[in-house]
């Protein structure tokens, strides 16, 4: 079966120009026609997502069968999905800002970026289902500033037994037949959020880089005593006992995410 990503880019290359608000059905029909098995799968459906608001204004017919009980207004205005509140917090505070960050980087080719992440949403029966969402930019209108994503929802409830959210960002190769990993992050939405100060984040980044307390003090123009106090406070806030536990926890919680993304985009740029 032809992959969704390949299908989408094939359509993009063939200049499928549509008015997003008046011809949404036409666009989705063309995509589903080229990828028929995916479109008809009862646990998977297509959507178009507004990039600025991260709201859905089109979900195909399968969505209403799976997600009935969510808000599907007439005439396709923004659709409200009932996300799990803990997952929604991770999406709004960590994943969506990360996507925005990557998209703002000039050397990251927006039309080649794809993002995948899972989350919990309530189904028509009132139970929580786990879905993975795969999205790519829809560039039919403004390639310089794309405003919409096109992608798929797939129900993975029977394949996943924990509540961790996995976020993956990739960049497609020139021929769209392979992709390179930019970042992979794992979040635990049910754990209490850890709030570190800007200075503590800077110290944490230095710890992750393998610097000693003396080296961190020199780099940040602070006293050794100040850095040691920061280290103690960070360990206390994160409930970790040593550097190894701290770095592992920080990666899982996305505390080092911005720094990792900067390094990833720097590598992609060939700097």
From TrEMBL:
Give the stretches traversing the membrane.
Answer: none
> Where would I find the HTH luxR-type domain in this sequence?
189-254
Question: Pfam families recorded for this chain?
Answer: GerE
Q: Name one GO molecular function term.
A: DNA binding
Keyword list, A-Z: DNA-binding, Transcription, Transcription regulation
A GO biological process of this protein is: regulation of DNA-templated transcription
The UniProt entry, under InterPro entries, shows: Tscrpt_reg_LuxR_C
Report the protein name in the record.
Answer: LuxR C-terminal-related transcriptional regulator
Q: Which organism is it from?
A: Pinibacter aurantiacus
């Amino acid at each position: 079966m032809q992959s969704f990503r390949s299908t989408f880019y094939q359509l993009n290359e063939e200049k499928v120009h549509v008015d997003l608000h008046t011809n949404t059905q036409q666009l989705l029909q063309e995509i589903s026609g080229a990828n028929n098995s995916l479109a008809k799968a009862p646990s998977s459906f297509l959507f178009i997502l507004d990039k600025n608001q991260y709201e859905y204004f089109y979900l195909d017919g399968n969505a209403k069968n799976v997600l009935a009980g969510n808000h599907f207004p007439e005439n396709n205005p923004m659709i409200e999905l009932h996300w799990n509140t803990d997952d929604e917090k991770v999406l709004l505070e960590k994943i969506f800002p990360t996507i925005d960050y990557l998209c703002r980087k000039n050397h990251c080719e927006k039309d080649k970026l794809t993002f995948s992440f899972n989350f919990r949403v309530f189904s028509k029966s009132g139970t929580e289902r786990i879905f993975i969402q795969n999205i790519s930019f829809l560039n039919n209108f403004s390639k310089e500033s794309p405003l919409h994503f096109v992608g798929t929802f797939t129900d993975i409830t029977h394949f996943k037994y924990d509540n961790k959210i996995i976020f993956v960002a990739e960049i497609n190769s020139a021929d769209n037949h392979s992709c390179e990993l930019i970042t992979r992050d794992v979040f635990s939405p049910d754990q209490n959020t850890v709030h570190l100060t800007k200075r503590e984040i800077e110290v944490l980044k230095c710890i992750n880089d393998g610097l000693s307390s003396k080296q961190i003090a020199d780099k940040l123009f602070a006293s050794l005593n100040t850095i040691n106090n920061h280290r103690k406070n960070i360990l206390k806030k994160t409930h970790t006992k040593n550097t190894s536990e701290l770095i592992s926890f920080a990666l899982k919680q996305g505390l080092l995410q911005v720094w990792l993304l900067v390094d990833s985009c720097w590598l992609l740029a060939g700097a």
